[in-house]
Amino acid sequence: xxxxxxxxLILVSKSLxxxxxxxxxxxxxxxxxxxxxxxxxxxxxxxxxANTFEPKExxxxxxxxxxxxxxxSYCKNKVSYKSVEEVLQSYSLxxxxxxTNNEMLRYLYKIKDYEAINYLKFAKNCEFFNSWVDDPWERxxxxxxxxxxxLLNQAIKLSQSTTNKALQFRYxxxxxxxxxxxxxxxxxxxxxxxxxxxxxxxxxxFYWSLYFRTLAEQDKALxxxxxxxxxxxxxxxxxxxxxxFNSEVAIEDVLKYAKTNKEKANVxxxxxxxxxxxxxxxxxxxxxxxxNFDGLSFLLLREVNKIEDWVFTPYYSLFEPSxxxxxxxxxxxxxxxxxxxxxxxxxxxxxQLLDFINSVNLNSIENPTFWKTCKxxxxxxxxxxxxxxxxxxxxxxxxxxxxxxxxxxxxKALVLTANQVYGKAILLNEVKPIILKNKHFRKFIFxxxxxxxxxxxxxxxALLYSVMNNNYTNYNENHDYYNITFWxxxxxxxxxxxxxxxxxxDYINAVYTPEQVEVLIQNVYNNRDKTDEFSKFKYxxxxxxxxxxxxxxxxxxxxxxxxxxxxxxxxxxxxxxxNDKYSDWERNGNGWAYxxxxxxxxxxxxxxxTPEFIPIKDTIRLNKYTVTKQLIKYINKAExxxxxxxxxxxxxxxxCYYNMTQYGNSWMxxxxxxxxxxxxxxxIDDKEFFECNSAKTYYLLALKNAKxxxxxxxxxxxxxxxEKNKLDYLAGENYSDSYADYQNYLxxxxxxxxxxxxxxxxxxxxxxxxxxxxxxxxxxxx
Length: 782
What we know:
Helix content is 57%, strand content 0%.
């Protein structure tokens, strides 16, 4: 395979991507089902995501911490949580004294509970040693500190000597924690098994201690069992303990240690959370063992978020899901057709999850409204739009938070838009206020546009795409960095780094027909003066871009070689756009020219990397309109039977067509961005742009009408150049030998260079070795 490096200069009109950029992971994921509506913040670390699990804030501002609850209970509920928090979080050892104003400490001194006060002092004295402490001599990165060992032994003695059961467990927990940082796993086991194993009321101290017991356990199945119990009962330990769960251990081996249905449910919960593919069978088990369990609802949330990624990410973007979990998605050669077939398979799985929800007794579930919302969304995923709308109406009458109500509206807008007949789909009035409320949620706006496009309404689709990136602000805390949309077209080849879009103009430039863009322009004309809020939102971008759209229509007709239609479109473009986008003024004004679309060479008389060899007779101000007009003029002259200089005009026309390719100085007649190598695209004229077929056709006509040997040789030389570019473009698919032999390969395949060498041998060397000779050969035309 020929080696080449693609340098992407500008890939999208509003973003500059580095060479080789390709979207992946969370930035691709389509999600319209917000985890926040369920109210399971303590599980937020484990929300479905293309990213690995990472710690998140699991408590709300006014939540009561488990240890604070224990201390308030210890103080007979006669002290405030704020006073407990103050002692635990802010006080130092010296702050614990009789002169304190703290309510908790004053209470303990008042009832003369000096054991509790001494415990608090001891715990503060241990704080420094309840973490990894570096050895200043670098002998051990977590040395066994003599001070820690002393405090550990002291904690054990105090635990054994006190008759206060609550303090006995607290001292033991301190000892267990310090044993962990001393790397004394056997002591952790001994202390836990002796003190905590038979503890009847399993409070947060029990599960904090069990966390360290999990870390010390060598039996992988037993460690998994412990981890599952800690995971459910100690929310602040979930992230760390989840990493101790070994998914390769058979779940049956873990369940051997479970004595109750609740413990079994806990095992299945953590096993399911660590599972990134289908988890329905585990969800069913959790329901069997503990239906009234918030963990069960959280698993349902994760499964719905998985399914929407598997279905909607490829359905709307034509990318693979953000998380791929099987060998199917590992196949890099998946075509768009293959991707969409897999979507239907995953819709079937959504139906299976829906069947399970239908089999559940919602009265036994801890959050029936949430389950109904999941059900309504799954109806949408499985395309049962009528059932989805019916259930959404029922949910709308329930008491919902503003956020939950918006979730229902988002699903409803998607359902209403998708549930329309092809060819008759519109932006429904019922959907418009939902769009305005969620106008910064890019993937939602895009999905509505995509649904309309799939239903044949490319005009409203383009309008939504155009405002998708307008006035961007964060949608919410989980739709900020990833609130961006990338997508492909169904015609994508999938073999380049530029086979995707994230801007409306790039997309309609590549995919829409000129007629579709003309309909779009007319729609903007007809509606741009409307003053209602939605119309102002909808037309905010395109009402200012009509000249640009006429430029696009003309460019599309150039690609189709419909020159008269192109000319008519270019005629409607104002001079401001030509000056702003295609002149030296832009270059000088911005100070940046590399790769920019500036008409600085006459496409009829000048060729890139070739000294001037044709006198310029018709000077015109260069823009797409004037070039097209001149091209039509020269074609008409060349095709006029009475024209004596047919060869001359055919040659000029050929030059123009050549310059409108990847290799010319007027590539902007066909493209809006240029790359340094043959980067295949979905453009309708992709072959023409890289293979120079039209230029070759007109150079052949120039050759046919040429009168002198030298001019014939020059025509043949230019035909050979076109052929070389075509062979070079195709070589990526056909060439497999070393690059060193590449030029010989191209020459051997180029029949026109061979013709030049055989039939015009005395001119061959001069024409192929030095472009300076072109002027002499062109002058010899007559």
